[in-house]
Amino acid sequence: MDELTRRLDAARPALPRRGDPLAAATEERMRGIVHAAEPRSRRPLFLSVAAAVVVFLAATIGFVALGKPSASFAAATPPLLEPTPVDGAPKDLLMQLSESVAPTGATGTVRFQSWSLSLVIGEGGAVEQSSIEPEVRTIEHGDGGSRVEVRRGQPYDSDGVPIEVEGYDVGSVIWEQEFGPGEYAFVFGTAPTTAAEFGPFLEQPLGRTGITTGDALLQLGNLLSEQRLDAEQLRAALRFLAERPDLRVEGAVEDRLGRAGLSFVTESRSPGEYAERIIVSEEGLGILSIETTYIGHDRTDIPSPAVINYTAWE
């Protein structure tokens, strides 16, 4: 379901994205669905892209089957990155980083680690607990078809320290699926090798033009989670981002996997509420990660700022 709904999210511009606040009417319907299923008990509600799509579909066409989610094990949101200031304008730095991208070998395997926000909703509809659900996903494409495998990732506390929880087996398979030749429905075609083509390429699955830089980062994340880009395609993506005037440089950081990179951020998708961030390798590895941070002041379930969505490509 997660893989399917991720593609639905990319194909439907009106769908809510992970971390987006729900409209009041949709939230009311969501609570009705949750409590109609289990009126006397608490249950976790996973607000990943997949769950957001399920809630959207339930509210709009009134047809959905909700199974009881597994227990939430990971505690708190990941720690915020701590950038070290660097000299240089965002455009100049991104152009330099594009030149440093190392040649990549041909491979049909995409592997990444991700965290997505999970909430526990109480009987009165109030958020009682927030946590981050870690996953490690591997997608393999070959002549014989495609295979998707999702395993449990390592949970961390709010200081970024790994934790151990009884009954939670890091590395165990959550779900997997095989696709025959031609059965895996790609959202994107072959990525372009010029910056001028990259914007329209990212917009095409959404069916609209003029998307914000934040939307572009989320689309780029969808692309990188579907297929591995070669060096020329990565250079084109970075040069495209270099032309976005609202992308600010935060500084040098160490990403969640311990790799050195430069962090760039934009609040264009939802000003004052959410910020999208991209980390680009200083060692020629290209795009290391993309994340979303809540920076608003209306939510009571998590602090502000708080990381609510993070994907790191290996």
Describe the structure.
- Helix content is 25%, strand content 29%.
- It is built from 7 helices and 10 strands.
- Strands 1, 2, 3, 4, 5, 6, 7, 8, 9 and 10 form a 10-stranded antiparallel β-sheet that branches.
- Residues 1-20 are annotated as: Disordered.
What tags apply to this protein structure?
transmembrane helix, alpha+beta, ten-stranded antiparallel β-sheet, 7 helices, 314 residues, 25% helix, transmembrane, globular, membrane, single chain
Offer a concise description of the structure.
Residues 1-10 have a biased composition (Basic and acidic residues). Keywords: Membrane, Transmembrane, Transmembrane helix. This protein has helices spanning 2-11, 24-37, 49-61, 90-99, 195-203, 213-224, 231-242; strands at 43-46, 109-121, 127-142, 145-152, 173-179, 248-254, 260-270, 274-281, 287-294, 306-313.
What is the topological layout?
Layout lengths: L1 H10 L12 H14 L5 E4 L2 H13 L28 H10 L9 E13 L5 E16 L2 E8 L20 E7 L15 H9 L9 H12 L6 H12 L5 E7 L5 E11 L3 E8 L5 E8 L11 E8 L1
Antiparallel strand pairs: 1-2, 2-3, 2-10, 3-4, 4-5, 6-7, 7-8, 8-9, 9-10
Helix pairs in contact: 1-3, 2-3, 4-7, 5-7
